[in-house]
Specification:
The chain is an alpha+beta fold and 149 residues long. The protein has one domain: Nuclear Transport Factor 2, Chain: A (Roll). The chain contains 3 helices and 6 strands; from the N terminus they run ααββαββββ.
Length: 149
């Protein structure tokens, strides 16, 4: 492998990881214009057992509706694999999120899952073309009352 090719592969991987991390932080911040910019127009998404969602605008709308009652969110991602093949790539990312709701800020919802993504290079930028979320488990925890043990 020559140096130019190695540098290109490292840059592709870094740009793909940046896209995946930006996806999570955009959801946490409810920055839906930024989130939309991370998808190709004809993207497909599937979250758990929900039906597949077709189109980037519909995916962002679905996420917006699913998080309307969230007061705070924190998505922790670890990108495990990125495999680039020309202008397409696949990625496996492990995900843990903590979310609180407006109505019950002392309760946290914890979701542990994997994302399997297909990304496509479009106009020099890596964007999500297909996102599949495989949910491992969801649990709820409540904060302890002051003085309770």
């Amino acid at each position: 492998m020559d140096v130019e090719q190695a540098v290109r592969e490292l840059l592709d991987r870094q740009q793909i990881e940046d896209t995946l991390y930006r996806y999570a932080s955009s959801i946490d911040d409810k920055d839906y214009p930024m989130l939309r910019s991370l998808f190709v127009d004809d993207a497909v998404g599937q979250y758990g057992d929900a039906l597949a969602i077709e189109g980037a605008d519909e995916i962002v709308h679905w996420i917006d509706m699913a998080t309307q009652d969230r007061a705070w969110q924190h998505h922790k991602l670890t990108v495990y694999h990125v495999d680039v093949d020309g202008d397409e790539a696949t990625a496996l990312t492990y995900h843990t999120s903590h979310q609180t709701t407006v109505k019950d800020p002392d309760r946290v919802i914890v979701i542990v899952a994997r994302y399997r993504d297909v990304l496509r290079r479009e106009n020099g930028c890596w964007k999500i073309a297909d996102k599949r979320m495989e949910i491992g488990w969801i649990e709820e925890r409540h904060a302890e009352q002051a003085g309770a043990r």
